[in-house]
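Record 1 of the preview.
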Amino acid sequence: MFADFAKITIKSGNGGNGHVSFRREKYVPNGGPDGGDGGKGGDVIFIVDEGLNTLTDFRHKRKYFAQNGEEGGKRNCHGKNGEDMLVKVPLGTVVKEAASGKVIADLSGENRSQVILYGGYGGKGNQHYATATMQAPKYAQPGKPGLELEVILELKVIADVGLVGFPNVGKSTFLSRVTNAQPKIANYHFTTLNPNLGVVDLNDGQGFVIADIPGLIEGASDGAGLGHEFLRHIERTRVMIHILDAAGVEGRDPIEDYYAITKELEAYNPALMEKPVIIAANKMDAAIDREAVLSTLKEEFEPRGIAVYPISAATGEGVRELLYAVYAKLKELKTKPVVFEQEYFPELERFSEEPYTVYYDEEEKEYVVEGPRIEKMLGYTNIESEKGFVFFQNFLKNNGILKELEDLGIAEGDTVRIYGLSFDYYP
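->
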């Protein structure tokens, strides 16, 4: 069975504790503190592996933990950083937070690698806490804990064109004729249980990727007939070929079939209605009155801007014309592949319940932001990096901190102090 869904637990490494020690050498019996910093915990990083095309491996292993950072040592020795956990997934994998279903990452398009959970920073050794009045501090900072999260992995097939239609209308036969794919074909419903991909190779290097989305039935958007598992693959496609049994071989009405499937697509995701559709009126070789059948379909759909192409997947009739029409539509669109935006930020969610305060320090003439939520956020964020600073800005915005500063009357150029960091405010 094609595995396109998995639920796993991931955890980033804990930061190593800072070390408490004092310099002890010959002739230096009472040296100062020399406890080293703890190592950073490993990150959990998802990367695309071109050799994978299913999520089968995640059925056997469900926990992916990064390594913890090591404790600091004597003589200012820094603890070893924990090794990252690299999780290899197929191209097109979407990572979602299990409880909310919100997207954390979409490993498709140009996004081939993404840190999902950052490891905790190591604690500072006691060397950092020496002062004029406290020359022998016996305190070191503990490392920051890692983050643990249950995530859902969904593999959404990446194809330019998706084939949709009721079971047994000839999608698999069509795919096997126009591509190098070899789907299993038989004369019964739900022949196709796996999304089959193939490459349509036209002349002069022209072509596109096409996917046979498994047969849909009424109620698919509610999960009937494994509907939810298959409908997700249509979201990536740019054009849909709706294959109809124009001859009504099984006594079905092709027009009723079209609207039944369209209803399921809209119920699953209304955005699917914006995708261009081309109708392939299949099995024309078996139609009793070809002209009447084709005329009826064109009268119904062409006023709606939907082109109808008569074909026979069995004999190849009309297939070439259809493929070139699809290719022309793809060239006309010039749209980038669908990539889902990030909706869930694990670090932000982790600190959402912690308190914080925002106030104006009259003596220092600075606005101050402090509290457990802020301190923990800084423990996971490298503000010196561009990406870390962007995350820091989003944190302030999404937590309402910027609004509170504005409510206090902050103006451009004013100073904001966040623990040991000071920033000039620019709206």
